Amino acid sequence: MTDKMDCGQAGKMADLADDPTLSRTLGSQAPHDGVQRLVLVTGPSGAGRSTAINVLEDLGFEAIDNLPLSLIPRLLDGPSRPEPLALGLDVRNRDFSASNVIELIDRLTRDPRYAPEILFLDCASDVLERRYNETRRRHPLSPDSAPAAGVMAEVDLLSPIRARADVLVDTSELSPHDLKAELTRWFDTRPNRRLSVSLHSFSYKRGVPRGIDMMFDCRFLTNPHWEPDLRSLTGRDSRVQDHVASDSRFDRFLQGVCDMILFLLPAYVEEGKSHLAVGFGCTGGQHRSVTMVEKVALALAKADWPVSIRHRELERRISAPSILGDASGIIQGAGRMRDAERGGTR
Asked: In this predicted structure, what is the pLDDT of residue 221?
């Protein structure tokens, strides 16, 4: 999944973050033969652009950070490169503007030699502000005032680019390890990589995770929360899973979800999609959605699809979120499948 004021400013940023036309992940398309893959990496300062550039370099990209926009055409008009290219775009560059970036993207889209993509690293405004305060760094757009002013200005500056993003990754609650895993799923250039699936459980109280391609509402299922001996457990526990599965609608729901995903995966592969994010939501994100994620992950892993799991609310339950903390929320599906087949409680 590299390095997320006053009330009016906070409200404006919240509206932008919640805009469904902007908070989307369109997918990373594989270029055709003979066409160079070109990823433009940008996002607010402190969201992880530098780390993302390093990750892409490890994945086989030729990576260049902080290149002025005016020099990019000259770079691309030079000798062709066999490796895919990743370019980091920094708002601190003198010629950086949203209009210039969009003009560059439009020009590259018309050029048959390149397959351009925008990777936008997003982050919640309060998290960005906290990162600056804790590191005591000055925001590049407000060097003489509080970081909140710079964060707000940068949101306004980048919003047109964010709206054009092909891949949007929210780093608000991601550790460096999580971010590397997320970018690896999107941009791994190694041969024979299959489309991978990430399954996310979440609470509707805290909102839908960003970047979800497909979502299922599990709130109609029997809720273990109302059973005193199950309330403190999670959907990883077999007793909770059995209780949820006792709902007469559960088997049909699970089978239908698995059949739909397994039907769609080959079609997405044909379209060049490299990753599918599927969300399962319930009221608290502890029981029903977790149960569904565990069951669906097992089915997909048995069908030999690379699958990973992220239980957002369980991560918060284990430890309070920290600024790019150490805990990883990504659990590889194959390992989880082996655990489940051994009969351990989840």
From this structure: 97
In this prediction, residues 309-328 reach a mean pLDDT of: 56
> Domain range holding 266?
196-341
Are residues 230 and 171 part of one domain? Answer: no
Rounded to an integer, the average pLDDT of 41-51 is: 86
Domains in the chain, number: 2
Give the residue ranges of the annotated binding site for GTP: 90-93
**Helix, strand, coil content of the chain in percent (nearest 5):** 45, 15, 40
Q: What is the pLDDT of residue 138?
A: 63
17 lies in the same domain as 73: yes
Per-residue pLDDT averaged across 230-249, rounded? 96
Residues 119, 200 within the same domain? no
- In angstroms, rounded to a whole number, what is the distance separating the alpha carbons of residues 249 and 271? 33
| Cα–Cα distance for residue pair 31/45, rounded to 1 Å | 29
- CA 327 from chain centre, in angstroms, equals 16
Annotated binding site: 43-50, 90-93
In this prediction, residue 141 carries a pLDDT of 53
- Local structure of 185: helix, strand or coil: helix
Higher pLDDT, 278 or 9: 278
Query: Cα–Cα distances in Å, from 181 out to 64, 111, 112, 262?
Result: 21, 31, 30, 23
Which of the listed residues 156, 187, 218 is the one where a domain comes to its end?
187
pTM: predicted TM-score of the whole model, two decimal places: 0.50
Q: Which residues are annotated as a binding site for ATP?
A: 43-50
pLDDT of residue 291: 97
- Establish if 1 belongs to a structural domain: no
